[in-house]
Amino acid sequence: MLIGNLDGMTVFARVVEERSFSGAARKLGMSKSAVSKHVTKLEDNLGIRLLNRTTRRLSLTDAGSTFYQHCARVVEEIETAEHALTDLRGTPRGTLRISAPLTFGQMYLPQLVTEFMDKYPGLHVDIHLADHMVDLVAEGIDMAIRITRLKDSSLIARKLADFTGHVVASPGYLEQYGEPKTPQELAEHRTISYTNVPSPNIWDFDGPDGQVSVRVNPVMSCNNGEFTSVAAIRGLGIAREPEFIVAEALSEGRLVRILHDYDPLSSGGIYAVYPERRHLPSKVRVFIDFLVEKFKGGLCNFHQEACAEYREGRGRQRPRP
């Protein structure tokens, strides 16, 4: 009986995951009415109500909750089979959904993705740039690039490169306020905090005498690293920044690295992460392999070319009338 209901089961599972008919319709590329008809037909064939519908929300019935657990496994098996066939054909197809931090994505992904799509023209790439942590499973993301000190996670991670963090200030700021020689002195300075970290006002360092933690009192906070770097360049205060954001400003003397004897524990790695699954889709595998190859010489080797393209692209932008 259920063999003829595979489409309905797939649609029903997506409705549950998206918590709405309209969300499922967007994910499936169908109309909302078509989604509703699939679910209604499935309920009619099974002879039982799966969803409680009101004008405001959907909720699973007890039967629907039980049935969804089985549907999800069936849909996963179907997707696994489709991915396996795609691998046999040897040409990744479909949509590759990627998440990446905003500034890193703006600086590096245009060059990377363009080159990658030249190799695999049958792919459509959907890129989500955000500085907050994205739930890959809930948002239907195939893989993400994360810049972090990797912690235990249900996600599978593959390291692409190391990255280094620096504590920086403008020459003008240091001339006006002096240069701190130890992390403890930061408590008396004007600081700029990046907020997409667990404790933005606690700055940790690894120094000659071990680890040091300092509570700073920021004059400004922001959830974007490029914004905080520009504020530092303009003399607003001292900031902690990834090297890939401030490398150019450091080389040009617009920023100065301070506290050389202390490693800010904002350093870490750049990782490609993806949800754990029995069969990794070929589109994800080949993109991660591509990233590993591009970054095999380290981030610095790739940085100058990518930054040049980023600056050139921004230079072509024109303000809207």
TrEMBL record:
One GO-annotated biological process of the protein: DNA-templated transcription
InterPro entries: LysR-type_TF_proteobact-type (IPR058163), LysR_HTH_N (IPR000847), LysR_subst-bd (IPR005119), WH-like_DNA-bd_sf (IPR036388), WH_DNA-bd_sf (IPR036390)
Gene Ontology molecular functions: DNA-binding transcription factor activity; sequence-specific DNA binding
Domain HTH lysR-type, chain residue ranges per copy: 1-61
Source superkingdom: Bacteria
Keyword list, A-Z: DNA-binding, Transcription, Transcription regulation
Record-linked SUPFAM superfamilies: Periplasmic binding protein-like II, Winged helix' DNA-binding domain
UniProt similarity note: Belongs to the LysR transcriptional regulatory family.
UniProt-listed PANTHER family: HTH-TYPE TRANSCRIPTIONAL ACTIVATOR TTDR-RELATED, HTH-TYPE TRANSCRIPTIONAL REGULATOR
The name this protein goes by in its record: LysR family transcriptional regulator
